[in-house]
């Protein structure tokens, strides 16, 4: 080949490749991420690829969300499959023609079958509902939504069963006496992390186990023990021990009662997470108790399942109920630390990405099959007022237990002062046992609370 011809060919190749390098693979038709067995990958994963344009590879991992320069090597359908920003490709294929009767195909969480030349889907309600997601993206709401890859392909009933996990409190617990709180001047914004810093523990991840009853109880205990001891105790208490060992009249990874969780941590105590690590998020099972009650009376002391030498068990006082009055919850939180709140999670909450959450009726408009709810317990860390929508919206700042990839780095805001989703109905606080700090309530009231948990 003559030198001039070779130079011309190299120039043509460079011109063809340059747009790919500078603008990525955008605009190239086809299915890429959607063809993977695990469509998308969390965080950075260099093996999360699909072939494109012959010898090239495009990516389907969350590293593609790293900003305006992050999409050059991402698959064309990354936005649609992994983040739900182009919902047209996510719609059901009901009614479309197919060529081979009996062929099956999965679309999101639905199983579709080719029948008489037409696709027929089973109608299962999915945890990520693309049509609702699209309306949340384009409508005027106080919060934004996202298509989480960890939730894509999961059924709504599966999410309610394994991502929540607090059973509705029994009547005797609902009627707990409320403590008396002395009012104080309250700021417009408050964040426990600003006041107590590293004494407030990070966001947990309960995984595929309905264990919010255990995770939130140990989370509040960890925070309050650190605060009241002024940092001398700063352990993350083991939600796994509570989940595995507090099984009397509890349902493990399918839910539990808060009063029984608090009873266990008051009577026996719970070791640190380093001693009894959390594993139920992967197994979906509470597992066998590896620190049985008899070990608490053993002269040799408790033995850590992890092999760690520090098997200190921490106890809490009986929990107390905080009034549902907005100001009382704020005063309690600002004075004594994060509180535990139980609220109703609706189907759209799983798609929350940021802003002030307010439940929409979009699923109800579709029909009863698209609606589901369940109770969930979280830590409330503070409050504030959002002005981004042009009108002030009061909110509670909460730490969820779905990991830092969800919401605002694992946190969320929810409408404050209107008992939205029952967030203000059942708020709980407790103290580390043995503390010498003066209580704000008298001991006779403490004894009254004890009677509720015998």
TrEMBL record:
SUPFAM superfamilies: Cysteine proteinases. PROSITE patterns: SMB_2, THIOL_PROTEASE_ASN, THIOL_PROTEASE_HIS. It holds the Pfam family Peptidase_C1. Keywords: Disulfide bond, Signal. Gene3D superfamilies: Cysteine proteinases. It comes from the Eukaryota. InterPro entries: Papain-like_cys_pep_sf, Pept_asp_AS, Pept_his_AS, Peptidase_C1A, Peptidase_C1A_C, Somatomedin_B_dom. Residues 36-87 form the SMB domain. GO terms for molecular function: cysteine-type peptidase activity. Residues 1-22 form the signal peptide. The keyword NAD does not apply. GO terms for biological process: proteolysis. Belongs to the peptidase C1 family. This is SMB domain-containing protein. The lineage of its organism: Eukaryota, Metazoa, Ecdysozoa, Nematoda, Chromadorea.
């Amino acid at each position: 080949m003559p030198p001039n011809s070779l130079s011309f060919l190299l120039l043509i190749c460079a011109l063809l490749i340059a747009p790919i390098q500078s603008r990525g693979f955008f605009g190239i038709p086809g299915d890429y991420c959607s063809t993977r067995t695990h469509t998308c990958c969390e965080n950075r994963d260099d093996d999360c690829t699909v072939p494109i344009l012959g010898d090239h590879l495009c990516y389907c991992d969350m590293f593609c969300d790293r900003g305006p320069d992050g999409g050059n090597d991402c698959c064309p359908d990354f936005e649609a499959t992994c983040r739900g920003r182009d919902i047209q490709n996510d719609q059901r294929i009901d009614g479309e023609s197919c060529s081979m009767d009996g062929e099956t195909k999965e679309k999101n969480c639905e199983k579709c079958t080719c029948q008489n030349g037409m696709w027929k889907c089973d109608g299962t309600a999915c945890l990520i509902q693309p049509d609702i997601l699209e309306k949340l993206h384009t409508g005027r709401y106080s919060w934004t939504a996202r298509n989480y890859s960890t939730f894509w392909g999961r059924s709504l009933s599966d999410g309610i069963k394994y991502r929540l996990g607090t059973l509705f409190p029994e009547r005797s617990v609902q009627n707990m006496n409320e403590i008396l709180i002395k009012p104080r001047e309250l700021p417009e914004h408050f964040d426990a992390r600003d006041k107590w810093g590293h004494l407030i523990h990070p966001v947990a991840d309960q995984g595929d186990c309905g264990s919010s009853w255990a995770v939130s109880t140990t989370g509040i205990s960890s925070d309050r023990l650190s605060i009241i001891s002024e940092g001398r105790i700063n352990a993350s208490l083991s939600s796994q021990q509570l989940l595995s060992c507090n099984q009397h009249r509890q349902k493990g990874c399918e839910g539990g009662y808060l009063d029984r969780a608090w009873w266990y941590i008051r009577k026996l105590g719970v070791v640190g997470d380093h001693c009894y690590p959390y594993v139920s998020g992967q197994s979906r099972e509470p597992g066998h108790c590896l620190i049985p009650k008899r070990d608490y009376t053993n002269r040799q002391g408790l033995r850590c399942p992890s092999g760690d030498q520090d098997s200190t068990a921490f106890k809490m006082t009986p929990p107390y109920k905080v009034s549902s009055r907005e100001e009382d919850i704020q005063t309690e939180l600002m004075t004594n630390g994060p509180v535990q709140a139980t609220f109703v999670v609706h189907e759209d909450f799983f798609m929350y990405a940021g802003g002030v959450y307010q439940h929409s009726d979009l699923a109800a408009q579709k029909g009863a099959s698209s609606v589901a709810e369940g109770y969930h317990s979280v830590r409330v860390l503070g409050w504030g007022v959002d002005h981004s929508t042009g009108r002030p919206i009061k909110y509670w700042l909460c730490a969820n237990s779905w990991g830092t990839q969800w919401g605002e780095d694992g946190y969320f805001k929810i409408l404050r002062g209107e008992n939205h989703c029952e967030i203000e109905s059942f708020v709980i606080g407790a103290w580390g046992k043995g503390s010498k700090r003066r209580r704000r309530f008298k001991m006779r009231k403490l004894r009254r609370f004890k009677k509720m948990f015998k």
